[in-house]
Design goal:
Blueprint: H1 24-54, H2 61-83, H3 98-108, H4 111-123, E1 129-135, E2 142-148, E3 159-165, H5 172-175, H6 179-186, H7 192-205
Antiparallel strand pairs: 1-2, 1-3
Helix pairs in contact: 1-2
Length: 206
Amino acid sequence: MEKKFYELPQLSFGYGELKPHMSGEQLIIHHQKHHQAYVTAANALLEKMDDSRRINSDFDQKSVLKELSFNISGHMLHSFFWKSLAPQAKGGGREPEGKLLQAIAGEFGSFERFKKEFTQAALSVEGSGWAALALCRETSRPLIMQIEKHNVNLIPSLKILLVLDVFEHAYYLDYKNERSKYIQAFWNIVSWQEAARKFEDFLNRK
């Protein structure tokens, strides 16, 4: 059986469609350089393991698996991130509706309270990482995850509805070191339609 490798996903919008909240230049570098780097590194590690197994040689399990976790998680979270964004002309920034809004308001008290907590989580990530809205499969409660790097504090099995990348490479061209301005801009291009689709999928599979 032919083994598959990771691929850089295509964006569902043009590089210039998120202006003025995210520039085309920032998107191009983030997508084509940074995200591609995680894909390339993950595939190189898979090839290294394949080669070792083919000739029955050993490799440093601790080092390789740590790098693999970091790079695969980086690829997957970036793939989620692109789907968490939408141009305002295509609904980006519109507040959630229906069952998803009910779930958020039921957990956090209000949508505004959720935005406050999510913003605080994104602001206070130590170093580089992510803020994510996810669903617990056991309790059906929406939870905020504050993910450091790509793979630290990640709660296993939670279904991610949307993520915000707060690595500096996600915003340094547009916002320099002002993470707070970048986070505020995110609310203008967040795709609640995609989050709602994932939420409905979760409900239908229960």
